[in-house]
Amino acid sequence: MSLVSYYNSLTSGSKIVLKIKEIANSLYTDARGTYEQISPSQRKKLLASFEQSNWRLANEFLGREDGVLFYDLSIKQTDQEWNEKYNYKGSDFYSLLCDVIDFLSFDNKRADKLNNIENDSDLNSLPDVGTEKKDSNNKLKIHSQCTICEKQLLFECIDDFDSCRDSLVSSDCPLNQCVTRERSLAKVFFDLIPRETLFSKYIHEAAPSNRGLSMLLSSHCENYIKSGYFPKMPFGQILNDKVINQNLEKQTFENDFFDVVIHLDVMEHLFNPFAALKEIYRTLKPAGICLFTVPTYPSIVESKQVAFINETGELSIIGEPEYHGNPQRPEDGALVTWRYGYDLQALISRYTDFDVEIRRYQDKSSAVMGHMTEVYILRKSMNYGKLTNSKSRGEAV
């Protein structure tokens, strides 16, 4: 939803909504006055949101065949220069604009909830972060600060562990109800990468969803690249919503290109996950990191492959086939090919050059709780060339 569409949809007299209207008005009535208080990457996005309507105005009403409405809006300033100008804190106007961008992801139902906020005391009356209580149905309720949007929200779940991975959510989440594994990865992500440096990072996310950390990075990181797997389309091609078609096991990206690569619950759907990790290693810059989540079963010691492609190209499955949801091709589902156990970090170390760290949480203050929410941290060595040449790696079965 564009800023102008969201602005036109707001009718409440609440303080929060009035502030949004004030910002929106300044963008349209005094754009020149606020122009340089917005980062270059956000200026580009604002201009892009009006690209279609501006082209029509220029072409149909001004008779310009090139469809250019403004010839003097080239953006030469870089985000690095802009950040230095504001000491990496951003202008006051930019801080307010970021709040508006967060609001843009709300659907009308969530916007109505915000419209009912009549004064700031409603916001200040929230319980302390990490406060836990249970309702009459013994349902867990905790007030936590989300690691993605940094807002204090009420999270609910039927228990405090077994169901948390997919069910500990907040109905007031501004990012389409992020789930626990996304908050877990974000907790690690922002512990390693300060938020204020996002603009300068090149980040690749494989199989992003339309919620949580994926939404935040898409709107706040100029060099955020998302990929999907569409085997019937040419690899390397840019598809709808700027998704680049990639086979993770044979990527088309350049060497030493990304600062960070992330993926959530992707590894269990790859036939050769260690080939994919080798490719991720290749595309990371020296000292780059890969962060991912994957279901890791506490009852399994040795990881097992349960689906194969044989030499004739036929699919072979051990036991009953299992499918998970596919955020990019919901009609297909995603076949489970591996069930990972306690030895996964050893397999990664054995078949790749990555060093491996794993973090687990049971943290009420950030609503990161439950089993199978581990975050794997893989680091590429600064001396990766020497490391690769000095030792040989086995091939995954």
In DSSP terms (H or I, runs of 4 or more residues), the helix count works out at 15
Low-pLDDT stretches are: 1-15, 28-34, 105-125, 386-397
Average pLDDT: 80
Number of strands: 16
Please compute the radius of gyration using only Cα atoms.
Answer: 23 Å
Q: Sum up the overall morphology in one term.
A: globular
Structural class: alpha/beta
Helix content, binned percent: 25-40%
The portion of residues forming beta strands comes to: 15-25%
* Main sheet summary: 7 strands, mixed
| Cα-to-Cα separation, first versus last residue | 46 Å
Query: How is the largest sheet built, in terms of strand order?
Result: 6-5-4-7-8-16-15
Notable traits:
397 residues; alpha/beta; 7-stranded mixed sheet; 3-stranded antiparallel sheet; 17% strand; disordered C terminus
Description:
Helices cover 33% and strands 17% of the residues. Strand 2 (140-145) and strand 3 (152-157) form a beta hairpin. By secondary structure, the protein is of the alpha/beta class. The N and C termini lie far apart (46 Å). The chain contains 15 helices and 16 strands. Mean pLDDT is 80; it is low at 1-15, 28-34, 105-125 and 386-397.
What's this entry about, in short?
With 397 residues, this protein is of the alpha/beta class. It contains 15 helices and 16 strands. The chain is globular and about 65 Å long.
Note the topology.
Layout: H1 3-9, H2 15-29, H3 31-34, H4 40-49, H5 51-61, H6 79-85, H7 92-103, H8 108-115, H9 121-124, E1 131-134, E2 140-145, E3 152-157, H10 164-167, H11 180-192, E4 203-206, H12 212-220, E5 224-228, E6 243-245, E7 258-264, H13 273-283, E8 284-293, E9 304-305, E10 307-309, E11 315-317, E12 323-324, E13 334-335, E14 338-339, H14 344-351, E15 355-359, E16 375-379, H15 384-390
Parallel strand pairs: 4-5, 4-7, 5-6, 7-8
Antiparallel strand pairs: 1-2, 2-3, 8-16, 9-14, 10-11, 12-13, 15-16
